[in-house]
Amino acid sequence: MTPLQVSLALVIDGGRFFVQRRDPAARRFPGLWEFPGGKAEPGETPREALLRELREELDWEPAAVAPLPTVTYTYPGLRVVFSVFACAGPGSPATHLGWARLTRAQVAALPMPEANRNLLPLLDRAEQELRKISAGAENWP
Ligand SMILES: Nc1nc2c([nH]c(=O)n2[C@@H]2O[C@H](COP(=O)(O)OP(=O)(O)OP(=O)(O)O)[C@@H](O)[C@H]2O)c(=O)[nH]1
């Protein structure tokens, strides 16, 4: 099974994570909550796919991006490799979907696609990793 490469953003502001609600008419996971992101196109790196999806979905560009460990999850007939990034920056993501900025505990209580249970431990690391790059790197404003 060739895995699907998906890039996801844990967008953090004030200790809260940005989540959006899938279209209730979507074919897969209608009405469930998810992190912004999507499938990589051929030839794209995970980071390029992330930035493109954020631009397309949210009209937003993160000022800081910290890679987190990759998570693999197998749905019936579909293996997905999630490249997860902690993201932060000024400005407000804009989406026509329902959205919210929630604490980790609130995110954990949401109806989400099954794979997202395996992403929850990364929420604890996300802020820590962003702090590291803000301490050392030039990609923080
Ligand atoms: N963006 C996003 N995708 C997720 C999450 N959790 C999860 O299992 N996925 C799955 O990862 C894939 C993301 O691809 P996508 O966002 O480009 O796809 P899509 O839902 O628009 O189209 P699809 O209906 O063909 O799956 C989907 O299969 C989606 O169901 C999540 O939190 N965020």
What does this entry look like structurally?
This protein is an alpha+beta fold and 141 residues long. The protein is 25% helix and 32% strand. It has a single domain, classed as Nucleoside Triphosphate Pyrophosphohydrolase (Alpha-Beta Complex). The protein has 3 helices and 8 strands. Strands 1, 2, 3, 4, 5, 6, 7 and 8 form an 8-stranded mixed β-sheet that branches. The protein is globular and about 40 Å long. The mean pLDDT is 94. 8-OXO-guanosine-5'-triphosphate binds at residues 6, 8, 26-29, 34-35, 37-39, 80, 113, 115-116.
CATH homologous superfamily assignment: Nucleoside Triphosphate Pyrophosphohydrolase
Distance between the termini: 41 Å
If you average the pLDDT, what whole number results?
A: 94
* Total domain modules: 1
Tell me the radius of gyration.
14 Å
Q: What is the assembly state of the chains in this entry?
A: single chain
Strand content: 25-35%
Compressed to H and E, one letter per element, the order equals EEEEHEEEEHH
Return the CATH topology: Nucleoside Triphosphate Pyrophosphohydrolase
What summary fits the major beta sheet?
8 strands, mixed
Total helical segments: 3
Question: Roughly how much helix do the residues carry, as a percent range?
Answer: 10-25%
Unreliable stretches:
none
Using the alpha-carbon principal axes, give the shape.
Answer: globular
Question: Would you count the extended β strands for me?
Answer: 8
Structural class: alpha+beta
CATH class: Alpha Beta
Query: From the coordinates shown, what is the CATH architecture?
Result: Alpha-Beta Complex
